[in-house]
Amino acid sequence: MSKLTPELERKLGTAVERMPAFPRSVQKILELTRNINCLPKELVAVIEKDPVMTVKILKVINSAYYSLPSKITSVGQSVVYLGINTIKNLALGFAAVGILPRMNAAGFDIQRYLLHSLVVAATARQLATQFSKGAADPGDCYIAGLLHDFGKVVFAQFLAAEFRDALGHSAENRVSLHESEMAMIGVDHGLVGAMLAKRWAFPDHLVDCIRDHHDYTAEPSAMMDCLRVADQIVRFREIGVSGNPWREEEPLAAPHMFGADIEALVAQVVLLDKFVEDASLFAQVGAD
After folding, report:
1. Cα(226)–Cα(127) distance, rounded to whole angstroms?
2. I need a labelling partner for 191 at 20 to 30 A (CA). Which of 11, 28, 45, 178 fits?
3. Quick one: pLDDT at residue 284?
4. Which residue from 49, 57, 52, 95 is spatially nearest to 79, judged by alpha carbons?
5. What is the largest CA-CA distance in the chain?
6. Could you give the CA distance from residue 85 to residue 92 in angstroms, rounded to a whole number?
7. Separation between Cα atoms, residue 113 and residue 110, nearest integer Å
8. CA 183/CA 44 separation, integer angstroms
C-alpha cells in the first residue's frame, strides 16, 4: 500500500473522528463474552442499562420469525432462549446499524450494504466453526465480517465525491473496488475501517484483519481466510451489495482450507439461506 500524503492522512483522520462512537455498553458486552466463564446475569445487567438495545432484542425474539408460544418480556429470558453468543451478535449488530447514515452523497446503498455485511458475518462464523478446526474463533470471525467493509461507510459519508468516482471506476473497468479506491482516493476501505476499529478500541488482531483483508501479502491467519471466503461466497450469491461484485475469473481465497470450487463450497454452507432471513429481520428491526 502506498504511503499516505499528509493531506490525505489529515482528511482520513478527520473523517474517522466524525464517525459516531461505538456504544460503551456493546464494548462491555464484548469484553464479558471473551471470557468463556461469562455468566448470563452479567450480560443481562449490561443490556438492561441500555433501553434501546433492550427493546430491539425483545422485538427480535418476539417476532414471527421465532414464533414462540408465549411472549418473552425480559432480557434474562432472551439470553436463556437465544444464548450468550446470539445476544452478543445482536448487540454488536444493533450498534453497527445505529452508526450507519441513512443517506449519503456517494449514492452508496446502505441497506444493501448492511445485508451484505450481516450475511458475511454469519458466513464467516460458520466457516470458522465448520472448517478451521479451532484455528479461528467463530465470534471474532463474526465481528470481522460485520465490520470489514465499514471503511466504505466512512468514504460514502465524508469523501463522497471520491468514493462515487471509485464505485464508477470499478464498475466501468471491471476491477475490484479496493483497487479503484487506491486509484481514485489513494487508500482503500480496509485501512480506513481499521482506523475506525482502532478508535472503537477493538483488539489489535481484529483491527489488523480489517486492514489487511484485501492485502494478500499480509501475514495469513485462519480468521482472515474465513473472512475473505465468506465475502466471496456472499458476492457470488449476490446477497446485498458491497460495491464489489463477484467476477467469474476471481479465484477462491484459501483453497488449502476450502478447496477451489466455490459452487461446491456454497453447497456445504447449508445455513446460508437462513443467514439471509436472519439478516433481513435484523436489518428491519435495527433500523426502527
Report:
1. 6
2. 28
3. 81
4. 57
5. 60
6. 11
7. 5
8. 47
pTM exceeds cut of 0.85: yes
What is the identity of the amino acid at 103? Answer: M
The DSSP code for 160 is H
For residue 282, what are the CA distances in angstroms to 58, 61, 63, 122, 243?
Answer: 12, 10, 10, 12, 21
Q: Which 3-state string (H, E, C) describes 8-36?
A: HHHHHHHHHHHCCCCCHHHHHHHHHHCCC
Residue 198 buriedness (CB in 10 A; 0-12 / 13-18 / 19+): middle
Which of the residues in the chain have pLDDT under 70? 1-2
CA 44, distance to chain mean position in Å, is 24
Q: Where are the domains of the chain?
A: 6-287
The reported pLDDT for the residue numbered 261 is 96
Task: Report the sign of the C-alpha dihedral through residues 67, 68, 70, 71, in that order.
Answer: negative
CA distance 107 to 188: 18
What is the CATH architecture of 6-287?
Answer: Orthogonal Bundle (1.10)
**Three cell numbers written together for 129:** 466453526
Buried b (16+ CB within 10 A) or exposed e, 99-118: ebeeebebebbbeebbbbbb
CA atoms within 13 A on the CB side of 216: 8
Beta strands in 146-192 (DSSP E): none
